[in-house]
Amino acid sequence: MMNSPYKIERLKANATLEEWQRYYDFWLQCNRTKKAPLYYSKLQDFQESWSYWMDKGTAIFIVWKEEKPYGHFSFFTDFKEQADKRMVKLRNSLKEKVLNENLLELIGKAFLEFDPTAKFLMIPSVNGENDFVEMAVQAEVGNYIESYQLKIEEVDVAKMDEWIAVSEAKFSNYRLQFYEDIPDELLEEYSTVFSQLMKDVPANSRSFNTLITPQTVKERQVNGKKTQQCSYRYLIFNEANQLIAKTNVSLNKKTPTSMYQYMTGVLKPYRGQGLSKWLKAVMFKKLVADFPDFKVINTEVHTMNAASRALNLKMGYVKTGFKKDWLIPREKVVAFIDKELKKA
């Protein structure tokens, strides 16, 4: 690499207190520069949260550009038990999400060292920002979804009330229940239904892992409390008290102005009856009641999921963009790095 303005450092899980203070100061400076929320008000919270993710196998790298803090990125390995699909996924928290060939070379080298057996490196691209990897490294599309946003001030509240009233009358034999945390006795059933709904999503995806485990759900609930990150959930149970439908909204109670709704789904035997409308409408009313000042709900829909897209549009969501997950085969990463070294 010739005259690269970037340098990176991988965080050490066994870092000293002095090193952790340096990591924390770096993170604070980056977030203040970006005017991003400061989720960690003290070093201890920061260390506990980032140590947790590193203990779970995530690698975190801090980045400088021209000697100034430029943010961080992280890796985690997915599809660990499937040798032909095993991939390292990039989480990009850099000052600018747009990558370039210098950064791609650094990320590629870090990938090769991080997981010697992974078949693919996954690079996210929002609204085409990193689509250059298709030509630069012969990347392949692993997933393609559309982004939608609902502005609260533009929602037809009377319509939401009508959806709820109609649903309560129509589904009087079903039970609608709100949860913030899934209780231990429900974790197994919740995870099984969640996984099934993920498998049923109409999508031609190679980077979309459909496996949800009770352990994962429990760990995220516990760890989220350290930064006030949580999920609001509405679940619907049938006459036999079996879980048949659900919706989730991810939010942070410190900054509850923008939220993310995900996996609104209904098990196959119960589809086409209007249960998703009930879930979406009642969740909207709950969020408005609990967070009167919140502004928007964001969500994502796979391009092949026509039913979900239609419901979002009926509710008032507007398409704001798209996202691709690019998969770079390991051998293409190696070839790209070799090419860059020859340039130097």
Structural features, described:
The protein is built from 10 helices and 12 strands. With 344 residues, the chain is α+β, with helices and mostly antiparallel strands. The chain folds into 2 domains: 6-144 and 324-343, Aminopeptidase, CATH 3.40.630.30; 156-315, Aminopeptidase (3-Layer(aba) Sandwich), CATH 3.40.630.30. Strands 1-2-3-4-5-12-6-11-10-9-8-7 form a 12-stranded mixed β-sheet, with helices on both faces. The longest helix has 18 residues, at 17-34. The radius of gyration is 22 Å and the shape is globular. The model has no long low-confidence stretch (mean pLDDT 94).
Key traits:
2 domains, single chain, 344 residues, 12 strands, alpha+beta, Aminopeptidase, 37% helix, 12-stranded mixed sheet
CATH superfamily of the largest domain: Gcn5-related N-acetyltransferase (GNAT)
Strand content bin = 25-35%
End-to-end gap: 6 Å
Mean pLDDT, as a whole number?
94
What CATH calls the topology of the largest domain is Aminopeptidase
Number of helices: 10
What can be said about this structure in brief?
Helix content is 37%, strand content 30%.
Topology:
Elements: E1 6-10, H1 17-34, H2 43-55, E2 59-65, E3 68-78, E4 87-94, H3 101-114, E5 120-126, H4 133-136, E6 140-151, H5 157-170, E7 175-179, H6 187-200, H7 214-224, E8 229-237, E9 243-252, E10 258-266, H8 275-290, E11 296-302, H9 306-315, E12 318-329, H10 330-343
Parallel strand pairs: 4-5, 10-11
Antiparallel strand pairs: 1-2, 2-3, 3-4, 5-12, 6-11, 6-12, 7-8, 8-9, 9-10
Helix pairs in contact: 3-10, 5-8, 6-7
